[in-house]
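TEACHING EXERCISE
Course module: macromolecular assemblies
Task: Read the component lines below, then compare them to the predicted structure of the full complex.
Student: A.B.
Group: 4
Components provided:
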Amino acid sequence: MNNLSVNPTKTTPQISFNADSGVLEVSGQSYPESAVEFYQPIMDWLNQFFSNSTKQVELNFKLNYFNTSSSKCILNILRLFEKAHAEGKPVKVNWYHHEADEQMQETGEEFAEHLTMPFKVISFK
Amino acid sequence: MTTSETGNAEIFELYRYTSAARILMTFKGAFSQELLVELGDIIKKQHGDGNDVRKMFSVFVEMAQNILYYSAEKETRRSDGKEVGVGIVLIRDMDKYFCITSGNQIEKERGEKIYARCEELAALGKEDLKALYHERRQSQAPEGSKGAGLGLIDMMRKSDAPPNFELRAIDEHLSFFILNIMIQKV
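Instructor-supplied answer key:
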């Protein structure tokens, strides 16, 4: 399976999903004009990835801002991982935030409240 | 042109008004995605990246995108013919708070719905808003909503003082919707 790599713009995050290593990363900021349009190819890639992979997958979020419509798309990504977890696939999610960034810390913690898969909120300097 | 034709007196009044109202930044016009990105950058450049500015920035983006999508007043951009919504956003200095305001035309009936929705949300505490935000985020976007229908709830959650909103009649079909969100300075 091909890797997925999307260069960042001012309003869309960098996406680097490595199908071989199972390390996936979403970083930057997200407030595109249409979040659904931006995230659809990412959802498609993930759906295909999970349909033929059983290996360890690590998803790292390193975001510093996203708007409410992106928030919904991020939840949809997390739900795909939650489903994979429920099917017994080894997944884990790390939510990185700058230590001074209360919003990103709180949003990470809020996602965590409703998930059963391994989900860590990690602060960095 | 004579002085009255150029509107110099009004421009002077506008300047005096914006100074007295302690308006830090304002834009009235067509809110394209590109424009709101630039204005958002200016906010960060002028105020830094403290947690209050992060909140201010995110409220600004939600307001500007709401105007872009939902304003009843549309303008076709000369450069590429794209249609975007028209409205006004202001950031005011209110001593302990920044007040972020949006104003735009809205169809009368839709305005009444939004106003009622604001009343419902303003009556809720932070924990209830948080629960509602989670519930809404999981469900389908409401009909006619291009975003996630979450923007209002998110702005209410971020407001550090009771939000203020008003619907003013323009004519029998149109109203003008104003929303004020207060962010405490840190």
